[in-house]
Amino acid sequence: MEAVSSIEVILPLLFFIVAFVYSSVGMGGGSSYTAIMVISGMSTLAIPMVSLSLNLFVTTIGSYNYLRNSHGKVRIILPFLISAIPFAYIGGSLHLSKDVFLWILLVSLVIVAARIYLWKDTGFRFELSKRQKIIISLVSGSILGLVGGIVGIGGGVYLVPLIIMLNIGTHKEAAAAGVVFVWLVSLSGLISRLQYNSIDLSLYLPLILSVLIGGFLGSYLGSFKFNSKTMEKVLGVVVLIAIVLLVRKLVI
Question: Is residue 239 within 8 Å of 114, Cβ to Cβ?
Fold first, then answer.
């Protein structure tokens, strides 16, 4: 009984921290929510649905904070969404084994960490034509949507730096595009999953409240005060911890 009580306290705290850090740089936090729930022993059937639901809650707040400051641009996000939304729906309909699910999650987290710590040249930009940028946006949107629907991540952690690399938006515009992208991809993936399974969200009310509070504070401070590069480094620490714990889960 004492262990259960500890988990009930620790999980909401962890989810608050994740929501705060991710939302401060225009992301939903789905990758880390999913990793934490896997590590805590939750069912891989319920995890994607819970994670996608939490993404919706935190990015609803984030979208409001970024868009009201006029950072959102339809021209930036639309090409990604055209392919991401249907592929997120497809991903949400797939039924994968637990091992495949865990490996996809682990690979996605490793890529996030590599991008944060190994790609140092944050000023790098691709010199591409408008047509090339649209093609890359469509292809990357489909990949992010598919992975998001499968494991319950929104894809903002990949989309935000990609927008900057393609030179189609500023850091603030990329962050705004990230939260809108995560919101719509999460919604598409969740709709697909709810056609095959259902969950009682009231059982996860402490987690929902934690991400709502963390998401509001993080997105507010991120859109007004925080330096995006500094918060990205903090995000990297969160991701590395999740990777280590997830690897232990797979090995043991």
Answer: no
Q: CB–CB of 179/23 below 8 Å?
A: yes
Which pTM value belongs to this model?
A: 0.76
Residues of the chain short of pLDDT 70, as ranges, are: 1-7, 25-28, 62, 64-72, 119-126, 222-232, 252
**Nearest one of 148, 156, 139, 157 to 193, comparing CA atoms:** 148
What pLDDT does residue 247 have?
A: 84
Task: Report residue 103 CA to chain centroid gap.
Answer: 17
Scored b (16 or more CB within 10 A) or e, 201-219 reads eeebeebbebbbbbbbbbb
What pLDDT, in 10s, does the model give residues 33-50?
888 888 888 877 788 888
**Which residue pairs, CB below 8 angstroms and at least 24 apart, start in 112-119?**
112/31, 112/157, 112/158, 112/239, 113/236, 113/239, 113/240, 113/243, 115/158, 115/161, 116/232, 116/233, 116/235, 116/236, 116/239, 117/236, 119/161
Residue listed under structure tokens 């309909």: 93
Stated as kind and residue range, the H or E segment containing 79 is: helix 74-93
Do the Cβ atoms of 122 and 149 come closer than 8 Å? no
Check if the beta carbon of residue 105 is closer than 8 Å to that of residue 50.
no
Give the number of residues written for the chain.
252
